[in-house]
Amino acid sequence: MRKPETIETLYLDFDGFFASVMQQAMPHLRGKPVGVIPFDTASAQYTTVIACSKEAKARGVQNVMRVPEARAICPDIVLVMQRPDLFRWAHGALLNEISCEIPIETVKSIDELCCTLTKSDIGDPQGLARRLKSFIAENIGPHITCSIGYAANRLLAKMACKMDKPNGVTIWRPEDMPRPLQDLPLTEVPGIGGRMEKRLAAAGVNQMEGLLDLQPKQARALWGNVTGERLWYALHGYALKAEPTGRGMYGHGRVLPPEWRNLDKAYDCARLLLIKAARRMRRDRFYTNRLWVWLDLRKGAWVQCRDIPSAHDDKAILSALDILWEKARDDLARHKIEIVRVGVTLSDLTPANARKRDLFHADDEDRQKWERLTADMDGLNRKFGKRVLSLGPLTPPPGGYAGGKIAYTRIPSAEDFW
Ligand SMILES: [Mg+2]
To answer: Which family does the similarity line name (predicted)?
Structure first.
C-alpha cells in the first residue's frame, strides 16, 4: 500500500450550512440566533429545530432539539421554516464556484466535498484555501463560510477539517503525523460511534494512542471485518482507494405535521413519497424487489415489508403499498395512535440490465403495459419540468417539499420538488 509523502487531499465542509444559507438569503436573519424548523411557525411548538445558526449554537441551542427546549434556552430564537429549494440552489452554486478552481472528486453530502490536489496546490495549500474562500464570499456571499482540511488521505483530511471550525484551514502534513491525532477522543474518528467506543474500551483501547498502536490485524478483529483494518491504515496516513458502494435502496421519509398524524393522511403522504422514490429509482435504471413501510409512532414504531417481484412501475409499487397499508390498519386502527413520521423504502435492487424474470410472476402483458405507461408519464413530467401526470391524486402535506427534503447525505435534484 502506498504511503504518500505529501498532502494529497482537500476536504471542505460548510459551516452551519442550512442556517448560514438562510442568513445569506434573508438579511434580517443575520447576526441573530436562528433555528430552522421543518414546518411553518404556527405549529412550531410541536416540532424540532433541525439546524441552527452559530449565534444560536453559542447560546446552547443544538441541531435537532425540540422547539420548547430551544425556546427555554434562547427565548429570542428566530424560527424559520426550511427552504430546501434554496439549500439545493446554494449547493449547486457553491460547487460551481469551487470547481472553477479545483476539480471536485466526490460530493460527500449537501455540505461536504473532497478534492485531489494538483502539484501546484500541494505547494501552496493556504493559497488555494484563500482563493476558494474569497470566491465564495465574493460570488455567493460572505455569510456562507467553510472549513478546509488537508492531509495525505480523505479520512485524515476530514478530521483535520473539523479542527478549526468555523472558517478555518488545517494542514496535517505526513511528516507531522500522528501528533495532531494523539489528544483527540476516539469518537472524533469518522466511523467510531458510541457503540464502537465501548467495544474498543472492552479490549483495553481507550485512547487514540492505543488504537494507533494496534496491529492492522488486531483492528480487523476488533471491528469484526475489514473496516477496522482500513481505518487503521487510513489513520496511519496510507492512501486508500474508496470502497465501491453499490446503490442499496431508494427511500423518502417525512415528519408529519400534527393534523396529519392519522392513518388516512399518513397514507396520502406515503403514497406521494413512494411515487417520488420510484421515479428516482427508474431514473437510475433500477428495479426493486421489496417495499418497506416505516411508521414512527409517538410510542414505538410499525415496520413491515412486502416482496415485489422485480418491478419499477408505479402500479405495481403502489399496489404493494395498499396491501401493506391494509395490514397497518388491521394492526393500528383500533388503538389511539399518532403517526409522527412516515417512511418508504424500495430495496433489494436489480439493475435494469440484470433483471431476473420472476418464475411465478411472468411478465404478462398487463404488467408490460403499466411499465410503458409509467415510462410515458415520466417522460411527460420531465418534458414539462413539473408533475403534469400521476397515477391517482397526489396530496402533498402542508409545508410542501415532500421528497425534496434535504438530508445531509442526499442532495435532492430539481425534480424531487415537483
Ligand atoms: Mg457542515
So the answer is: Belongs to the DNA polymerase type-Y family.
Q: How far is the CA of 70 from the centre of ligand 1 (A)?
A: 20
Question: Among 174, 194, 225, where does a domain finish?
Answer: 174
Which cell goes with 152? Answer: 495525505
Q: What backbone torsions phi and psi does residue 345 show, to the nearest 5 degrees?
A: -140, 135
Residue 416 pLDDT > 60, yes or no?
Answer: no
Q: How many domains does the chain have?
A: 3
- Closest among 58, 24, 28, 26 to 143, alpha carbons compared: 24
Distance 372 CA to ligand 1 centre (A): 42
Sorting pLDDT into bands at 50, 70 and 90, what band is 104?
A: confident
**Residue 144 alpha carbon to ligand 1 centre in Å:** 11
Which of 217-226, 389-398, 409-418 bottoms out in mean pLDDT, i.e. has the lowest?
Answer: 409-418
For the stretch 68-101, pLDDT in tens is 999 999 999 999 988 888 888 898 889 888 988 9
221 CA → ligand 1 middle, Å: 33
- HSE, CB side, 13 Å, CA atoms: give it for residue 295: 27
Same domain? For 241 and 96 the reply is no
CA of 147 from ligand 1 middle (Å) equals 8
327 with 403, same domain: the answer is: yes
